[in-house]
Amino acid sequence: MKPKPITATTLVWLQRCARRIWLDRHGDAAQRVATDPVLQHQIARGHAHEEAIVAAQFAQRHPLVATAWPELVAETLAAMQSGVPALHQGALEVQAHDDMILCGSPDLLFRVEQPSQLGAWSYAPVEIKLHREPRPDDQLQLAFYRWMLGMLQGNVPEGELWLGFDAATHQPLQKVRQTKPPHVQPWLDLLTTVRTGDEAPINFSRQCSYCHWRNACEQEATQRQDIALLGQLDRRTAAALRKAGLTNLAALVQLTAEQLAAYPHVGPKRAVQLLSHAHALLRGAPYPHSAAAMRLPPAALFLDIESHPVTQMPWAFGWMDASGQRGSFVVVPQRPRQAPARLDIAGSSVSFVPDAAAGWQALAALVAAQEGVIIHWGHYERQMLQQDATPSVQDALSERMIDLQRKITQAYSFPIARGAGNGATTLKAIGGYLGYTWPAAANWAAAWDAYHQWCQQLATVRTQQQPWADAIDTTLADGLAYLMSDVVALHGVWQWLQNNAAA
């Protein structure tokens, strides 16, 4: 029987998670689940970005017409042998060993004037990515294609990553060249070892939400009460604990904090966090890290920001004040003339600002006459304040910003298991445990899509005089509903901490 092909994606997943590779060989296929909606969104955006770059850079690229893989492989090789200038999504296939076939489809193959078995030329691969900085996955994928090309044409070419997109020039923001020899063989050897070895341990990470085995791993970890359920558990720590026979929560809590701190990448602070989380999971109730958490100062505002998925530039600032009044500042670079500066949508005040700096200015004005702190979740809001706000606004707000995630996780561990792509300390995890909900099928990607579609509708408003309110009602409200759910949950988590804190 012909062996199952190995692709760049196979090696990328091997780099991320050996268990994924082991389950692909030994797992029950009935336990696989569909692609995550956020991943589908990212894939679609990535394909659109790739098409835009290729259309701008290689309008005269050689067309490939075959659709079936074997015919596409043959057509690609024939085109390379004839010396065409560039190929988009060509198909490569090489026999690495008797039981190993490598398949790949580089985003671009372009001819370089370097002799090879093909003739007086050879081909080099380009991978096109929407994100702006190179990632380990990108480097491995590019190395894989270079290695395959070396086997096909007799020399190993250099390769490039084209990263980001400059809308003004239709050029990548950055081109990163890869010149060092691609070390792919060690990955292929490791692949064989993992596939034929013992069951790989569970290790949860952000990438797990994109894996078709995510539910199977969560169920298995829960059944075993595996240490993988612990938030902030480093893989190197987990490996050392497993080697010592400490594979489940009940065994882990037999250690003292001093004993656990001696394991790799733990230390005194993380030892307390890990043990507290284990106790919370075993007891099914929040577990305090110390005798009493301190009450936070009174809050003037609860703040959550939604941002562009690539640039991270804010597009909406959601807020709730101490009285419970809710609102948002939405970035509208070109507001139609007939559009009001403020509207009420679903009981919330919505104001429009031209850019992120103006959004921060509006927030500063909102809290200028109020005493109290500004509650947010995580480090992002403070980063955006430093990036986008004017110096005077930074001076006015910086000292008032309090990261509630940091405060509550310093004080408590919750009985929330770390899962496939879901951290145990996210707002949705802790807010969900406390009973707060979000709109069905809502996520940051869907919220961005709603905002992006709304911005496109504004062009129709400007050119065809479509009523402004129609554009609001049909699209923007969906994105803002998700944003305001974050704000309400943020307030609820703060209230829980205040109610359970020492005076």
Automatic annotation (TrEMBL):
An example GO biological process term is: DNA repair
Q: Which NCBIfam families match?
A: TM0106 family RecB-like putative nuclease (TIGR03491)
Q: Which GO terms describe its molecular function?
A: helicase activity
Q: Which UniProt keywords apply?
A: ATP-binding, DNA damage, DNA repair, Helicase, Hydrolase, Nucleotide-binding
Record organism: Candidatus Viridilinea halotolerans
tRNA processing recorded as keyword:
no
Protein known as: TM0106 family RecB-like putative nuclease
Which residue range or ranges hold the PD-(D/E)XK endonuclease-like domain?
63-218
Question: What is any Pfam family matched here?
Answer: PDDEXK_1
Does the record bear DNA repair in its keywords? yes
